[in-house]
Amino acid sequence: MKTIILILSFYSIVISGCKNKRAVLNDPGSTEEIITINIDIPEKKQSHEIESIAKQYDFLKLKNNDSCFIGRINKAVVYGNKVFILHNKGVHIFQNNGTFIKEIIFGRGPGEIQYPIDILVSDRGNLEILDNIRRSILIYDNDDAAFLNEIKLPFRYIQFQKVDSENYILYASNFLSNERYYYHIYNVKKQRIIQSYLSKFPSLAKRRKFLTTQNINKINDRVYINTPFSDTVYAIDNSLKIFPVFYFDYGKDKLPPDYYRTLGPNDATNKDKYNNSAKGITSLLMVGNIMYFGFSFRRSMVQGMYNRKSGNLYLSDSGQHLLTGNYIRFYPAWPIGKWEEGLIYAIDSYGFIEEINNLHKNSDDAGWKEFRRKNKRIIALYEETTENDNPILVFARY
Fold first, then answer.
1. Cα-flanking dihedrals φ and ψ of residue 352, to 5°?
2. Distance from chain centroid for Cα 128
């Protein structure tokens, strides 16, 4: 008995390079070649039995009590023996065995949060929270999460990352309808914005629904960014210079170059004549040689994983195969972060139990016995999980 995972296709990508010829704000004239990722979307979906793209994965069950019942996880960050969780009900800290440590308290006082929208952990191990309502970054000590400092910001932002000890890169998306640029560099010492990147199209300025997820990535001394439905990933180096590094070429399915420039402010993009086109990058996670991304195609989301070293590209209309292989899909699962060896996914406990129950129901005795024999860790997790438990984290190695 096997569960076939429906994916669009598997490709061995041919990498091609070309010098950047696009006008980019603050581009210093970098001679670094841009890598083109050619995506040829097939007309019909294809079914494949595939082994897991992940070489290995481990589970972490976040333990429950009255103080740490969490909702849908938006982001997870690992540092040392701690896991920091941002979810739709707040920010919680766990040990790497799932034991609850502390919750950051809501309120209006010093060190209290009102609308946490992004988190990071600094090189020193301090937790930093971007609060959209407070318009600030709140910093907490690594040892006991005691409040240390608050950095006031000029605007409300939805994502952030440290470029270095003095500078943050901040992503405004479309919340700042009067702001011309998506990204700002805020210097802590000077207490002001010292640089801006990637101008907005006027047609998108008031489209607040165009919010990407985790589209700021830091690898070594570079920060990688992209904008809503753009086809290009840019890098910012430690001198704060910006240049394109990856370009997604959707071939016959890509949008016309002037699509967003000519789009009227009241047009509904899901009803226009380019509905069947591939619309840029809507999410981006990068770790090591792995690049996880999503894009809109024919009124649905396609998720992909590109290996920068091998050039292999995996595409799917369901992100589950990027994690699990051909026995169980772990629906619903979603990528929420990265760690040093791969990506972190969250599994909804209710969906996990439902998936196992359905698999059992639709299997004969021999098939179910074989599944239990080959998936002892999954069965052990299933037997100790209830529908009301916290989400389960999966650490996938690639």
1. -65, -50
2. 18
Structure-token pair, residue 198: 């990637």
Report how far residue 290's alpha carbon sits from residue 94's, in angstroms, rounded to the nearest whole number.
26
Structure token digits, residue 260: 């967003």
- With tokens 């994690």, the residue in question is 323
The answer to whether 128 and 121 have CB atoms below 8 angstroms apart is yes
Q: Does residue 51 register a pLDDT over 50?
A: no
3-state DSSP assignment of residue 136: strand
Exposed, middle or buried, 253 (CB in 10 Å: 0-12/13-18/19+)? Answer: middle
Closest CA to 335 of 80, 54, 50, 82: 54
The answer to whether 176 and 200 have CB atoms below 8 angstroms apart is no
Q: How far apart are CA 10 and CA 28, in angstroms?
A: 37
**Which contacts (CB < 8 Å, 24+ apart) does range 134-142 have?**
137/168, 138/111, 138/113, 140/104, 140/111, 142/79
pTM of the full structure: 0.84
Domains of the chain in start order, with CATH, are 5-397 (2.130.10)
Which one-letter amino acid corresponds to residue 244?
A: P
Q: Are 278 and 41 in contact (CB under 8 A)?
A: yes
Q: Give pLDDT tens digits for 305-332.
A: 888 888 888 777 654 444 443 334 444 5
Query: CB-based contacts of 295: which residues, under 8 Å, 6+ apart?
Result: 248, 250, 278, 279, 280, 281, 282, 301, 302, 304
SS3 120: strand
State the Cα–Cα distance between residues 205 and 91, nearest whole angstrom.
30
Residue 190: pLDDT band with limits 50, 70, 90: very high
Q: How far apart are CA 95 and CA 89, in angstroms?
A: 19
**Among 275, 273, 313, residue whose Cα is nearest residue 293:** 313
Q: What is the residue whose two structure tokens read 């210097």?
A: 187
